[in-house]
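Job type: complex structure
Entries:
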Amino acid sequence: MIVLNGTGVSSGIAYGKIRFFRHSKCAVEKISVSDTDREIKRWREAANDASAQLLEMAQRQEGGDAADLFETHRLMLRDPDFVEAIEKEIVESSVNAEAAVEVVGKRFSQMFSSMENDYMRERSADVDDVSNRLINILSGSSEQESGVPTSPVIIAADDLSPSETVLLDRSTILGFILINGSKNSHTAILARNLGIPAIIGIGDKLASELDGRYAVMDGSEGMAVIDPDERMMRELEKKRQHENAQKRRMDALRGKPDVTEDGKNIKVYANIASPADVKYVLENDAAGIGLFRSEFLFLESGSLPTEEQQFEAYSSVLKKMEGREVIIRTLDIGADKNAEYLGLEREHNPELGMRGIRLCLTRPDIFKTQLRALYKASVFGRLLIMFPMVAGLWELIDAKRICREVREELSEKGVAFDEHVPIGIMIETPAAALIADDLAKEADFFSVGTNDLTQYTLAADRQGSALERFYDVAHPAVMKLIQETIRAAHANGIWAGICGESAADTSLTEQFLKMGADEFSVSPKTILPLRGAVRSGKAY
Amino acid sequence: MEEFLYTVCGAYGLHARPAGQLARKAAQYKSCVTVEKDGRGAQTSQLFALMGLDIKCGDSIKIKVEGSDESSAADGIKRFMTEHSI
């Protein structure tokens, strides 16, 4: 029994024969040539052939991601900068077309591998893929890879190029184990899409001598075991059945209403941090968005986002949610976050500093820009606005006054907006929970932010790992504040929800339901488990 | 010339596939289409240069469209980008 460890990038358990994938890659010989015209002609013909190959492969895929990939490779091949660089290399260095393609391909590929963005770095694999195709055509080697499996196997390789990955017959792959590889490679993405396990970064211990041996792999643990003993097999088989049963249970919850066993309708909503996350909201069948953290726009760029940039982001989320509720939380950054352009003073204790609504009320210019963008976007769906970090009643009243000003300005200009966008607040300071009765008369809804509420109630930093046992989200003091918040909300005829980590903790769901929680907002991947807990829970 | 601002919302920014989709869409028009980020620009036919702008999710980019069909091209491209969550 040999145990191999790497990084799991797609979960699942698979058992089968290992099949080493062999690449078809030609070594390039650099030759000095005098007739560069001939080499240019050879290169152009090879580019035409490659383009035809890619077109045919794209058509064979009948749409989808693989077809897009080949189309993209075709565009790379036709990129005027790429073409010019290759022809220039042939002429100026008087070399054969193969050598020119290799040199230029490497240069373009390096441009990507030096990029900051992980995902973009991966794209150097696409460039290498295109160059290899050209070199194979130029040197007359056939396209056909050797060792393409016909029966289901665990594919092993040093790494797989994007086109190698998409050309694999999906019905014959049980899983991937790679010596190198990376999290955002096509292989990892394909594995996640197919729901099969993949492990990367195993290293040289995964040697080609293991070809043909039996192995069992566990994607969530990042472990592959060659020639597993019976005990190992039994254990993993049990885990596999458990994972499958869990997945089936979750899939069965799709499309089901979020109603407790005793008949109360609950809003099970998702948290998102950028418009791109809407995809996961829809994939996991959430009924709405309970917390859209608007900070991403403010943190990713080096300057304040303009009204138009914000409008684009908010309206795109509202449109994609097609009339389902979207709660957008106004800017919640402070000195602890990276937004140097705000020119905030360094604080000894940023968690107790100029953040959330405090910053918005201190910098009404920033706040008003955001509110204008929000109101303008409001006509594209069902928007709710939520203020973070409220501690005093006057803060809410002031913020609402600014909202009114923005609405009046928009009306004067004749800009369309929804006049009845509900305005709610996060309850994340003990102060807010204790004056919830007063706040409920001014707010249209509450959402308890359990992370900050726990931190501020227990005076325990939630980021300090040494404090873990002191930071107790289910501490009776925290629970009392939540209970009081919900009671005050209902007494004043508004709804109250819970967001933050403990909203997704299904061992607390029943307790929150009993307190009267009307809404939960959790990360997209915990929507279905939470729906399960809500449907089997009782609210009364 | 027509121009508009757009916030990229694809999870991985303007990487190979969306850049390719955008390039193919732009090629349907006669106009020359340029993408700009932080003062650097690339034409949509220059796929490598376009990807080299390292446009990430949430980045704001400026699209410039110049040519005989610029107004329909700008509309068409904007709609395409929104619909395809580029």
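Summary: Residues 70-83 of chain B form the longest helix (14 residues). Chain B has one domain: 2-83.
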